[in-house]
C-alpha cells in the first residue's frame, strides 16, 4: 500500500468520527477520546508499514530504559511498548509539556494523599508555569504529606518511595531540557531533595549516568562549567544519601565516586566536602543513623589519606569504628595539633560570624567523645588531658562571646 493510501485510511477514520464542519464544535469528551484512539491506531499502523516492527526494540543500554523501568515500578504500571512506533508514540503522548491542562480536582473515596498535589504540578507543567522554585515547593509539599502519614518522629524515616513525585519532577526536567544543562544543581535545597526522592523511588541509576557524563566532560573538555557541575552533583548526591536511617549507601557511593574520579583522571579533592559530610554524620550526628558494616566503614576511613583530610576527622572516625573504636589518634591530635584551634579562635569575630568556626565545633565534639571513651576504659589521666584542652578552648570561647556558644553544625 502506498503512503498516500495509508494516510487516506487515516482520513477516512477521522471523517467517520468527526461530524461535518457545519455542525457545532468542539467535540464531546467521548468523541475526543475516540478520535485520539483512532489517531493512535492509524498512526501506529502507518509507521509500522513504513519502518517495520521490531521484536525487541528495548534491548539497548540501561540508560535508555531508566525512566521506563522506573515508571513501571510505580503504583500504576503502564504497558511497556514493544515496537519502535509504540516507543515513539509513547514518548510523544507522555511528554509532560504536552499534557492537557485540566483543573485540579480532589477525588472522593480511597486514593493516594499525593494525587491532588501531583495534578496541580502536572497542570502547571502543561501551562508552562513550572520553575525550579515551584518544583521545590511541590517536593516539599509531598514530603510534608508523607511525613504526616508516618508514625516516625524522625524525617529520616519518611517513606518517599511510593509518592512518584521524584519521577514527575525528573520527567519535567528531561522534557524541558534542563537535566542536560544541570542548571538545577545551583539550587542546593531543591537538588538535594530531588535526589533524595529519586533514591527512594529507585531512580538513582539516572544520577550515576549523569555523574559519568559530567565527569567525562570535565575530563575531556575541562571547562569550568563541567567541573562545577561535577562538584555539585557529587556533593548533593552524597548529601541526599545521608538523609536516610543508615549510611551504608552513603559509604558505598563515596567509594564508587572515588573510583570514577580516578578512572576519568580527575582530582580527588572534588570528593572532599562530600566525604566530610558523611564523616560528620558518622560521628557527631551518628545518633541519627544505624551503624555501617566494617567492610564499608574501613575503606571509607582509609580514603582520608588520599583526600588529605585533617587529622581530627580521621581521629573522630576511629572513635566510631563499628567493632574496634580507638582514641589513639584523638590523643595524638590534642597533644600535637590543637594550636590550629587557638589560631582560628584568635581570628574569630562573633560580630561578623555569630557561630563559632565549624572546625572548632568539630574539635569540641571530638574531645568530648574521646574523653568519654577513655573514661569508660579507665584511662582517667589521658581523659583529663583531653578535658583540659577542651576546657581551655571553652574558656577562650566564653571570653570572646561573653558566655555564649554556637550550635554544632556540619564542618563542610
From TrEMBL:
Positions of region (Disordered): 1-87
Name of this chain's protein: NWD NACHT-NTPase N-terminal domain-containing protein
Low complexity composition bias: residue spans: 63-75
Listed Basic and acidic residues bias regions: 76-87
Amino acid at each position: 500500500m502506498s503512503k498516500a493510501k495509508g494516510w487516506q485510511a487515516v482520513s477516512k477514520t477521522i471523517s467517520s468520527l468527526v461530524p461535518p464542519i457545519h455542525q457545532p464544535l468542539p467535540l464531546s469528551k467521548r468523541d475526543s477520546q475516540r478520535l485520539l484512539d483512532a489517531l493512535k491506531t492509524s498512526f501506529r499502523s502507518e509507521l509500522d508499514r513504513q519502518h517495520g516492527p521490531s521484536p525487541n526494540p528495548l534491548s539497548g543500554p540501561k540508560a535508555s530504559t531508566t525512566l521506563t523501568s522506573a515508571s513501571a515500578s510505580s503504583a500504576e504500571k503502564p504497558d511497556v511498548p514493544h515496537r519502535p512506533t509504540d516507543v515513539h508514540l509513547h514518548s510523544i503522548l507522555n511528554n509532560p509539556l504536552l499534557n492537557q491542562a485540566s483543573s485540579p480536582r480532589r477525588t472522593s473515596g480511597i486514593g493516594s494523599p499525593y494525587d491532588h498535589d501531583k495534578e496541580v504540578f502536572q497542570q502547571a507543567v502543561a501551562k508552562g508555569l513550572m520553575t525550579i522554585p515551584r518544583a521545590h515547593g511541590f517536593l516539599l509539599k509531598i514530603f510534608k504529606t508523607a511525613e504526616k502519614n508516618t508514625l516516625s518522629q524522625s524525617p529520616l524515616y519518611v517513606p518517599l518511595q511510593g509518592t512518584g513525585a521524584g519521577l514527575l519532577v525528573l520527567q519535567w526536567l528531561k522534557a524541558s531540557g534542563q537535566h542536560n544543562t544541570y542548571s538545577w544543581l545551583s539550587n542546593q535545597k531543591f537538588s538535594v531533595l530531588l535526589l533524595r526522592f529519586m533514591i527512594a523511588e529507585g531512580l538513582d541509576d539516572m544520577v550515576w549516568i549523569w555523574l559519568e557524563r559530567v565527569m567525562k566532560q570535565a575530563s575531556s573538555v575541562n571547562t569550568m562549567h563541567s567541573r562545577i557541575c561535577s562538584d555539585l552533583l557529587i556533593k548533593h548526591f552524597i548529601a541526599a544519601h545521608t538523609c536516610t536511617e543508615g549510611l551504608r549507601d552513603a559509604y558505598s557511593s563515596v567509594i564508587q565516586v572515588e573510583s570514577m574520579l580516578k578512572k576519568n583522571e580527575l582530582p580527588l579533592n572534588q570528593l572532599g566536602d562530600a566525604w566530610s559530610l558523611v564523616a560528620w554524620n558518622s560521628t557527631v550526628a551518628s545518633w541519627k543513623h544505624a551503624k555501617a558494616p566494617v567492610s564499608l566503614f574501613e575503606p571509607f576511613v582509609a580514603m582520608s589519606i588520599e583526600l588529605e583530610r585533617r587529622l581530627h576527622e580521621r581521629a573522630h572516625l576511629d572513635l566510631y569504628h563499628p567493632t574496634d573504636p580507638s582514641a589513639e589518634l584523638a590523643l595524638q591530635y590534642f597533644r600535637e595539633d590543637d594550636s590550629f584551634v587557638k589560631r582560628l579562635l584568635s581570628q574569630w569575630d562573633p560580630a561578623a560570624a555569630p557561630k563559632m568556626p565549624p572546625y572548632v565545633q568539630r574539635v569540641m565534639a571530638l574531645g568530648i567523645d574521646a574523653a568519654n571513651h577513655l573514661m569508660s576504659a579507665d584511662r582517667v589521666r589521658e581523659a583529663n588531658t583531653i578535658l583540659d584542652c577542651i576546657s581551655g578552648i571553652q574558656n577562650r570561647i566564653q571570653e570572646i562571646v561573653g558566655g555564649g556558644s554556637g550550635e554544632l553544625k556540619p564542618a563542610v
